């Protein structure tokens, strides 16, 4: 995935999701904010048995999110009769957090978004990771540092491309040599 791994991306995606939610809510007209507040109170009462305190976020904490997805993934694998080791569980949990951080509520989408034909619902995790990596760089680094990091990534990609071409040439030579020997 480049310079940043899933275990680094997941907490950033979680924070970005919360920031985007708070920003969207702050941009609502007052009736929208009241509706969201009431819905959050209802959800908190339903899920936790208590109302949210003033100024408290309705979002789950990082630990709550991680635990929720770990339980889901463990349950899914148990239902299939499969087992996961600790490292696999952690990686799958981080990937699930990334996926869910980049998805939207289908009901809300159908109410407020117009669709211009059929869309591919599959999530391309590589493009998500690349976009998130660029966004994080833009936030954390200066323009000069961003430029330097992008050049470094381009060099790595070019190096990998050259190595792949070299391997392909070697494989082609090996195949030709084997053909000659078979004749």
Structural description of this entry:
The chain has 183 residues and is an all-alpha fold. The protein is 75% helix and 0% strand. The protein has seven helices and no strands. The radius of gyration is 23 Å and the shape is elongated. The mean pLDDT is 79.
E-strand count: 0
Give the N-terminus to C-terminus distance in angstroms: 44 Å
Q: Which class do the helix and strand fractions yield?
A: mainly alpha
Reading the helices and strands in chain order gives HHHHHHH
Q: In terms of per-residue confidence, which ranges show pLDDT below 50 for 5 or more consecutive residues?
A: none
What's the helical proportion of residues? over 70%
Sheet-strand content, in percent, reads under 5%
Q: Give the CA-based shape.
A: elongated
The profile of the biggest β sheet is:
none
Mean pLDDT across residues: 79
If helices are DSSP runs of H or I spanning 4 or more residues, what is the number of helices? 7
Q: What is the CA-atom radius of gyration, in angstroms? A: 23 Å
């Amino acid at each position: 995935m480049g310079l940043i791994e899933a275990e680094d991306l997941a907490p950033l995606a979680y924070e970005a999701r919360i920031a985007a939610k708070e920003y969207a809510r702050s941009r609502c007209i007052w009736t929208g904010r009241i509706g969201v507040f009431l819905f959050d109170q209802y959800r908190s009462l339903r899920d936790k048995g208590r109302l949210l305190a003033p100024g408290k976020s309705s979002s789950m904490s990082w630990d709550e999110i991680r635990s929720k997805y770990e339980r889901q993934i463990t349950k899914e694998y148990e239902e299939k009769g499969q087992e996961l080791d600790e490292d696999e569980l952690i990686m799958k949990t981080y990937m699930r957090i990334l996926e869910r951080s980049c998805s939207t509520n289908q009901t809300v989408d159908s109410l407020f978004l117009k669709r211009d034909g059929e869309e591919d619902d599959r999530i391309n995790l590589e493009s998500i990771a690349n976009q998130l990596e660029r966004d994080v760089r833009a936030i954390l680094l200066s323009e000069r540092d961003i430029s330097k990091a992008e050049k470094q990534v381009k060099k790595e990609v070019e190096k990998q491309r050259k190595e792949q071409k070299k391997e392909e040439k070697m494989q082609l030579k090996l195949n030709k040599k084997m053909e000659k020997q078979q004749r």
